[in-house]
Specification:
Blueprint: H1 3-14, H2 19-32, H3 38-45, H4 62-73, H5 77-87, H6 90-102, H7 113-125, H8 131-144, H9 148-158, H10 168-179, H11 186-194, H12 199-215, E1 229-232, H13 236-242, E2 247-252, E3 256-263, E4 266-270, H14 282-291, E5 296-305, H15 316-319, H16 321-324, H17 328-334, E6 337-347, E7 350-351, H18 357-367, E8 374-376, E9 379-382, H19 385-397, E10 402-406, E11 419-427, E12 430-433, E13 438-447, E14 456-465, E15 470-477, H20 483-493, E16 497-498, E17 505-506, E18 513-515, E19 520-524, E20 527-531, E21 546-550, E22 553-558, H21 570-579, E23 581-583
Parallel strand pairs: 1-11, 6-8, 15-17
Antiparallel strand pairs: 2-9, 2-10, 3-4, 3-5, 5-6, 6-7, 10-11, 12-20, 12-23, 13-14, 13-18, 13-19, 14-15, 16-18, 19-22, 20-21
Helix pairs in contact: 1-2, 2-10, 3-12, 4-6, 4-8, 5-6, 6-9, 7-8, 10-11, 10-12, 11-12
The structure holds adenosine-5'-triphosphate.
Length: 586
């Protein structure tokens, strides 16, 4: 197939802004394309040579492309650079210089799509020593035989500037018309695309096997399924109503979404945007390998940075260290991740995307070997708005963004690639940022694990309620302690250990160790939130809710100068909450 045919269609498309016309031009192109080339032509129209998730990009630097054009056109680099400065479009410059050359030569071999594709593929894959010269030679090779118009589009393609503005859905429309018997075939094509993220493969299947092929389209491990997304509402009542009176509410973990594909020892991880992020999370790869029981599976999880010593979730920003760090091994140690799994889409040859959610959830419970670091997203099945609200507050306090409430109905399939009402997210509209540190009394402690075995993992801290002369808990704090602190604190607390909760301590939690309220520590957190768990100011803002400090951290200051009754008071915390309440921009 002549590449000129493709270039002509590009030109037509470039000259229209109407989607229908664009579709017609594409239909025409697809009809003229031999079936065994259709995938390649589809990728090319999008300025690519493979689907995005393969991560193979042509991306040649302009400087190198100029050298290739100079060689093909027999002109000096300087002349080209000068012209490029004027046009700002290297494709146009290439076209101009090759036009001049064309007038002087006669013998050239017409370019085929196969040859162009092969050269682009080699350019994309060339690496290591000598690869720069190799890329220039490959590009100059095809440009030497290119007609000026072809050169324009080849150059734009290699520099990543083709930008014809053809949406994925336009390609699907055109394929439906060219091979599927008409636009009515769009939903079948769309589904195939949504479960493969590979337009080229979809094109090939429909071109070669028509609608039957699409009906039998299979999910493949290694090809990402386009993610299902949630709508948003802002009250438990509205959510329950929308979901038929009852739902499964899950913690909305605040990390990075990953879709994990497992086939034996092979694991791929894809991001929400379907990039292959396997190399960024070697620890997550290991977790999937060892805790997902079937030989092959596709699951979805939120990857969250967790404090290795306390098991507490860290703020989302800390996960981003994993993106920045060059030394991934070190990053794994400092910012290990946990996986909170919330869906299963495929198990050992069985496509689960069209099963209702209760079925998928049951399978999920069977296939995950749960540990501290691999867990099924915490959930609650409820029809009660109050219960839903309390679960929401608990999720926030535990470091989550809120809840994702999901349909349990017959229609609750996995809607790949779309945002719909089967999932509804419930996030806060307001938050109360904490700018000042507070002084809190230690009233209990929890045993540590891992590196902290033998000392305390977290302390239960309370504010002072002046009117009632009691201590009301406001957080469990496990962060900010140095090794020295961890050694010192158990000794320091030893004299105050009592066998049960102190009578002046109001709490809903069961600590491992209880203390007489004596020792005061300075603590700062990210914000103050409503909490169904902590008793500080219970009922003062909302019935049934107290206040808690989210992401609390010991500042390093022991307030030995203060008695427990000098701690920050409950009223002060209520005031801080009200004063700092801000609308969340989102
Ligand atoms: P947001 O910025 O609110 O995360 P989004 O557009 O990325 O929005 P939405 O579909 O609106 O995504 O919200 C769902 C997102 O929440 C998912 O993409 C996923 O990353 C995350 N998430 C965390 N926990 C869950 C869960 N239990 N179920 C589904 N999604 C979850």
């Amino acid at each position: 197939m002549r590449y000129l045919l493709v270039a002509n269609v590009y030109e037509q498309i470039e000259n229209t802004t109407k989607r229908l016309e664009m579709t017609d031009y594409l239909v025409d192109l697809f009809k003229k394309t031999p079936k065994d080339l259709i995938d390649k032509v589809v990728y090319l129209t999008q300025g690519k040579i493979y689907p995005d998730f393969m991560g193979i990009e042509i991306g040649m630097a302009e400087k190198l492309v100029i050298r290739a054009i100079a060689r093909a056109a027999g002109r000096r680099i300087k002349e080209l650079e000068e012209d490029f400065r004027k046009t700002g479009d290297l494709g146009e410059t290439a076209q101009k210089f090759l036009e001049r050359k064309l007038q002087l030569t006669f013998a050239y071999k017409p370019l085929t799509v196969e040859r162009v594709y092969k050269a682009l593929d080699k350019i994309a894959r060339a690496s290591g020593a000598g690869s720069i010269d190799q890329k220039i030679a490959l590009l100059a090779g095809i440009l030497s035989d290119a007609e000026p118009k072809e050169a324009k589009y080849i150059v734009r393609t290699v520099t990543g500037k083709l930008r014809l503005g053809i949406a994925d859905m336009t390609v699907l429309d055109a394929l439906a018309i060219a091979y599927g018997g008409g636009k009515e075939a769009r939903p079948l094509l769309e589904r195939a695309y949504n479960v493969s993220s590979d337009l080229g493969q979809v094109a090939k299947v429909v071109a070669e096997n028509g609608l039957e092929g699409l009906k039998n389209f299979k999910i493949s491990v290694g090809k990402p399924i386009r993610p299902m997304l949630a709508e948003r509402l802002s009250s438990p009542e509205e959510i329950l109503e929308k979901l038929g009176g009852k739902c499964i509410a899950e913690y909305k973990y605040d990390g990075e979404r990953v879709q994990a594909h497992k086939k034996g020892d092979e694991v791929f991880l894809f991001s929400r945007r379907l990039e292959n992020i396997t190399n960024q999370f070697p620890d997550a790869v290991e977790l999937v390998k060892s805790h997902i029981k079937p030989f092959s599976a596709i699951i979805e999880a939120e990857c969250v940075s967790v404090d290795p010593e306390t098991g507490e979730m860290r703020p989302f920003q800390e996960l981003m260290h994993r993106r920045r760090k060059h030394d991934i091994r070190k990053a794994i140690e400092e910012y290990p991740v946990s996986l909170f799994i919330f869906d299963v889409l495929y198990v050992d040859g069985r496509d689960l995307t069209l099963e209702e959610y209760p079925v998928r959830h049951k399978i999920l419970e069977e296939i995950v070997d749960e540990t501290d670091r691999v867990q099924i997203a915490k959930y609650l099945i409820t029809d009660d708005p109050k219960e839903l609200e309390a679960f929401f507050e608990e999720a926030i306090e535990n470091g989550c963004e809120g809840l994702v409430c999901k349909s349990l109905g017959k229609e609750s399939i996995y809607q790949a690639g779309s945002r719909g009402w089967l999932w509804i997210k419930y996030k806060r509209d307001y938050k109360s940022e904490m700018t000042d540190a507070v002084d809190l009394t230690v009233v209990g402690a929890f045993h540590g694990r891992g590196k902290r075995a033998g000392t305390y993992g977290a302390l239960l801290l309370a504010a002072y309620n002046h009117e009632e002369d009691v201590f009301e808990t406001v957080c469990k704090c496990g962060s900010g302690f140095t090794d020295k602190d961890l050694e010192k604190i158990p000794k320091m607390m030893e004299p105050y250990i009592i066998p049960h909760r102190h009578a002046r301590v109001k709490t809903k939690l069961e600590a491992d160790v209880w203390f007489e309220p004596k020792i005061v520590l300075e603590v700062i957190g990210a914000e103050i939130t409503l909490s169904p768990v902590h008793t500080c100011g219970m009922g003062s803002i909302r019935e049934g809710s107290g206040l808690a400090i989210r992401f609390p951290r010991f500042t390093g200051r022991y307030r030995l100068d203060k008695s427990a009754e000098d701690s920050t008071t409950v009223n002060e915390i209520i005031e801080m909450y009200k004063r700092q309440l801000k609308r969340i921009e989102s």
